[in-house]
Specification:
CATH superfamily: 7,8-Dihydro-6-hydroxymethylpterin-pyrophosphokinase HPPK
Number of helices: 7
Radius of gyration: 16 Å
Shape: globular
CATH topology: Alpha-Beta Plaits
Number of strands: 5
Order of helices and strands: HEEEEHHHHHHE
Largest sheet: 3 strands, antiparallel
Strand order of the largest sheet: 3-2-5
Length: 174
């Protein structure tokens, strides 16, 4: 799909439609939010949203679908956290822990400098730093406030409540 003059919001909305057309059964979608780019200074502000969907296949297959849709929207994965036209993340899949709790803890505790330098060679679920990111949790609060992190034991609502006000203030509904 050519990007043409699509705004980031239009790109996001079109990508969600494309996921639905590709067989992902979307059960809910959050509002769309404007958030500062991550990491800071990596580009213009982003738009973020969360969806809740049913998926009957394997987590790796869902990740492949997300990457295929990103590619349709001219996403290039040349630089970790570099400029991107679209970023579709698999944050959690029910209460799955992949590949295991020890690997999750290792990546969850990785210093930011290391996170910027290395990328995991496998899917890690839930996302190891989702609990630290308002741009993930605030949209997720719209569609799954009661979802409970399988390793931390906290709901999305509890994780949002634990975030600093400064982080929450950066997430603005459009």
């Amino acid at each position: 799909m050519p990007l043409g003059n699509y705004s980031p919001r239009q790109t996001l909305e079109s990508a969600v439609s494309r996921l639905s057309e590709s067989g992902l059964m979307i059960r809910g979608q959050s509002r769309i939010y404007q958030t500062p780019c991550f990491p800071p200074g990596a580009g213009p502000d982003y738009v973020n949203a969360a969806i809740v969907a049913d998926w009957a296949g394997e987590a790796a297959d869902l990740l492949m679908l997300l990457h295929a849709v990103e590619a349709e929207f001219a996403r290039s994965r040349e630089v970790r956290w570099g400029m991107r036209t679209l970023d579709l993340d698999l944050v959690a899949l029910d209460d799955a822990v992949r590949p295991d709790a020890a690997t999750w803890r290792e990546w969850q505790g990785l210093a930011l400098e290391e996170q910027m330098r290395v990328a995991p060679d496998q899917l890690i679920l839930p996302h190891p730093r989702m609990q630290d990111r308002a741009f993930v949790l605030v949209p997720l609060m719209d569609v799954a406030p009661d979802w409970r992190h399988p390793l931390l034991g906290q709901s999305v609502a509890q994780m949002v409540a634990a975030l600093p006000d400064t982080a929450l203030d950066e997430v603005k509904a459009l």
